[in-house]
Amino acid sequence: MTGATPTRAPGITKFDASIADIVVETPDTITAFLDLGQPVTYRAGQYVSIDPHQFPSLGSMTRYLEHRKGRHEPPRAYSMSSAPHEPYVAITIKEEVYDGVMEYPPLISGFLVHQLRTGDRIAVTGFAGAYVLPEDVKAEHILHLCAGSGSVPNVSIIKDSLLRHPNLRHTFVYSNKTLQDVIFRAALAQLQAEHRDRLKVIHTITREAGAASPNEDIRSGRVTVDLLREIFDREPNTIVYACGPAISVWDRRAHAAKGTTPTPRFLETMQSHLTELAVPRERIKVEAFG
To answer: Residue 216 is part of a domain; what is its CATH number?
Structure first.
């Protein structure tokens, strides 16, 4: 989850974190490594929440949006890309950009991506979220269907599972516009090299033709039902974890006012493909980003 409004879970804790390091993943995406100052326990796939009111430089915009919306600006949720065994809690943040369709411009993601610095202090609240593997996984294979920053919780899940579930295999299908947009590209290649019998990574690139790499499976175009059928034929005992852009509340409201139907986005398309392949709904876990 990135930039969305979180649902508060019981027993979560507020941490005064220090930014231990920042890695630029793509031109609009960073990973911030948080030193929470104490040992923590969380589940791979969960998120932390960040309250925009803590940042003085966002004060005017926050008050303006609260005035326009007539309500308090809530914290935003950002999924962790780290796994529980790693030394720091890491959150990966992709800048949201106003697209002319949203009712209001994004408030916090651009600030976090472009203004956070090593040594800064930031208050985060965690941990929450149900986009996690069950303790007793009833499958031999997990198919991860991701687009854009939807990769973040799934990378956490894969790193954790490769350590804790020695008999569980993973296929990571990752859709982006261009190779420059691929978050964690080097890390995914390294994980696949270290776990060739348990992890297969497939990149689908929608706006860049002719991409090739001797050590990566890079395909042109969108994620197709034929690609998914190929994976299910090879791995019939599969559970699906799908995360990426979905039709927003604002899209639905705008189209409802016009009496039109919004164009399906990544998650709606993946759900349609899975329905065509007769994958039972109970074997599909979905997390919407946007």
So the answer is: 3.40.50.80
What's the whole-model pTM score? 0.92
User: At 117, which CATH number?
Assistant: 2.40.30.10
* Domain range enclosing 111: 2-128
User: In terms of DSSP bridges, do strands 76-79 and 2-4 run parallel, antiparallel, or are they unpaired?
Assistant: antiparallel
Whether residue 241 is found in the same domain as residue 216:
yes
Q: Which residue has the tokens 């060739």?
A: 196
Burial 43-70 (b: 16+ CB within 10 A, else e): bbbbbbbbbbeebeebeebbeebeeeee
Count of structural domains, the chain: 2
Q: Same structural domain for residues 190 and 244? A: yes
The pLDDT tens digits for 172-198 are 999 999 999 999 999 999 999 999 999
- The C-alpha atoms of residue 225 and residue 75 are separated, in whole angstroms, by 37
- Contact, 18 vs 121, CB < 8 A? yes
* Beta strands 76-79 and 89-94, pairing class: unpaired
**Which tens digits make up the pLDDT trace of 47-86?**
999 999 999 999 999 999 999 999 999 999 999 999 999 9
Burial class (CB in 10 A: 0-12, 13-18, 19+), 18: middle
Instruction: Burial-class residue 249 by CB neighbours within 10 Å (0-12, 13-18, 19+).
Output: exposed
Rounded Cα gap, residues 9 and 251, in angstroms: 28
Q: How far apart, in whole angstroms, are the C-alpha atoms of residue 50 and residue 135?
A: 28
Unique residue bearing structure tokens 């569980």: 168
> Are 239 and 212 spatial neighbours (Cβ–Cβ below 8 Å)?
no
Round to whole Å and give the CA distance between 166 and 149. Answer: 27
Give yes or no: residues 283 and 153 share one domain: yes
* Same domain for 175 and 106: no
